[in-house]
């Protein structure tokens, strides 16, 4: 038997779903059992073993091995005596430390070879597209791309499972925009998944979620130097996994750079937010040319911020992009976002724009 599965030996019904989702999100196979005979048989050859107070006593009778992680329900306390008895490397409370556990479980390699017939295991994600992937990109700074992406997710979440992805390495964090900065859940630096295959539904379950059901994968903020850099090789497999699962994925894309170039062709379409200004239109024309080369369906939204020198018709001629809507200046929204994040009740003009985008993509809203 290959060692590419994670053994989930967790009896606590409170933390069991969280443990299985996190294990599956690594891309490894998952074998889920609390049968002592099965634990004895599978324990030594697993990539990692997740245990709790219900199963720690039995695991303590088996040969000592690395990669044992003890789990307890948030807020604790952790039964450190049980954790030490079963020789756990560390202990985690879930869901508060879900991201830490995900990081500890490490990279995934060749997950398909680790499945065992007759056991509950996460197989490889099907390449067949089930969900919709919509990228949102601004042709100029300060256009409000992140706000539009988050608003699009908010509107779509009324009728669909929605995941909002921050694909900009220099973003301040979409979790801040949606008020999730203090909630536990995985951020980009936690998803160093190597070449493993990710189950989209399990990945979504490992993310922080807004009260209206938007799962958010954002960058992480730190005051210390961090070697992690968000690149296309990180973003692409995540989008492919989410695209293979039901639901809508909205991607906040940078205008340029490796991440944008590597993932735009994965999207079903890209929405360009184009300020109605000469330089922004020139930049959009270049972006449309690049997207046309990769055969990515592209539509535009004319953005009027303060004074606009161009009309929607002008933008269509300059950029050769189909302009499907216009978004005017929203003077109160910027202050509301700064003080309390994107409001659950969006301004009427913003809601109307998101509905136009979703309708054009064939998504009900």
UniProtKB/TrEMBL annotation:
Gene Ontology BP terms: negative regulation of cell division
InterPro entries attached to this UniProt entry: P-loop_NTPase, ParA/MinD_ATPase, Rv3660c, Rv3660c_N
Gene Ontology molecular function, alphabetical: ATP binding; ATP hydrolysis activity
One Pfam family recorded for the sequence: Rv3660c_N
Domain Rv3660c-like CheY-like N-terminal: 10-113
GO CC entries: cytoplasmic side of plasma membrane; cytosol
PANTHER family linked to this entry: SEPTUM SITE DETERMINING PROTEIN, SEPTUM SITE-DETERMINING PROTEIN MIND HOMOLOG, CHLOROPLASTIC-RELATED
Name of this chain's protein: Rv3660c-like CheY-like N-terminal domain-containing protein
